Amino acid sequence: MEAEETELERRVLAHARILRTLIRFLADDRPDILTRLQTAFGAGHNIGEYEQDFSSTEQYGAVFLRSIEREIQQKNCGH
Residues in the chain with pLDDT < 70? Predict the structure, then answer.
């Protein structure tokens, strides 16, 4: 992997971690926030949708939101 790709990957991962944390904080006061975010990632056609290794924005969004839900559940269970 080239240095630019590695740097970009680290930046994206850092942004994802920040977003997850912010959404968890918001969910403490507004539990409906996850439902609202899930609604925002509705189905639709994406360019490249039929490519072999294609993952849609909605798929990435759903995985991201599920990871936040798991973190909230773990926090609430005391893990």
Answer: 1, 42-54, 79
